[in-house]
């Protein structure tokens, strides 16, 4: 299993981080992307990967953290991408849950696209709608402004859109990632999407310590719980668990160049 989106540096793991990491590799986890959410957390993500060769990092700033980024922060992010353990730009994107500043978020997102293009790295997109604005529609609009040859590859993390949007993302060269939310019984539309879109376009993730899948919903999440996401997708598609496990593993490593 390869977890395409994890936050093991989160404070929820402070008491047992090293022990937990070692246990992950013994439980069938082949690695994960430790995702940066700010300049500080991106530095910590890179540092974690240097201690564990099966962990890789992404460098980015979550939309909620954008206001605090100074020019020196951009220089630091660019420097961090030079580390060979950095395999993606992210998580970056659009989040309208705390207000509607579309122009500002779009401008910063395009700046991250420029960085991804310069470093030849894929992107991890955070997309959250709010205030009656569909963030997926806005991101699709932005992605369509780039020619096919210039548009970076990427993944829509913890996908929350509809089937048409998933299909549009795939047509634009994106992967769609499913987290523990797909195991929730009330996630009917999401489960139908996981059943319908090509397996070649699917990644799995935990977004740990958040979004813990059934049957452990409410407890701390970790990369080993990818197996419940994989099992659910296999059941929905009527296919073998091993096929989903291998395909999503290969998809992640293909996107990330691991």
Write down the overall mean pLDDT: 96
Largest sheet: 8 strands, parallel
CATH architecture: Alpha-Beta Barrel
Gyration radius, to the nearest Å?
A: 17 Å
Major beta sheet, strand line-up: 1-2-3-4-5-6-7-8
CATH domain fold name: TIM Barrel
Fourth-tier CATH superfamily name: Metal-dependent hydrolases
Low-confidence runs of at least 5 consecutive residues: none
Number of strands: 8
Oligomer: single chain
- Count of separate structural domains: 1
- Count of DSSP H/I helices: 9
Distance between the termini: 14 Å
Beta fraction: 15-25%
Give a short synopsis of this structure.
The protein has one domain (2-256): Alpha-Beta Barrel (TIM Barrel). Helix content is 41%, strand content 16%.
Topology:
Layout: E1 2-6, H1 17-26, E2 31-35, H2 39-51, E3 55-59, H3 71-80, E4 86-95, H4 102-119, E5 123-128, H5 135-143, E6 154-156, H6 163-171, E7 174-178, H7 188-196, E8 202-204, H8 226-237, H9 241-256
Parallel strand pairs: 1-2, 2-3, 3-4, 4-5, 5-6, 6-7, 7-8
Helix pairs in contact: 2-3, 7-8, 8-9
What keyword list fits this structure?
9 helices, alpha/beta, 258 residues, TIM Barrel
How is this structure best described in words?
With 258 residues, this protein is α/β, with parallel strands linked by helices. It has helices at residues 17-26, 39-51, 71-80, 102-119, 135-143, 163-171, 188-196, 226-237, 241-256; strands at residues 2-6, 31-35, 55-59, 86-95, 123-128, 154-156, 174-178, 202-204. It has a single domain (2-256), classed as Metal-dependent hydrolases (TIM Barrel). It has an eight-stranded parallel sheet with strand order 1-2-3-4-5-6-7-8, sandwiched between helices.
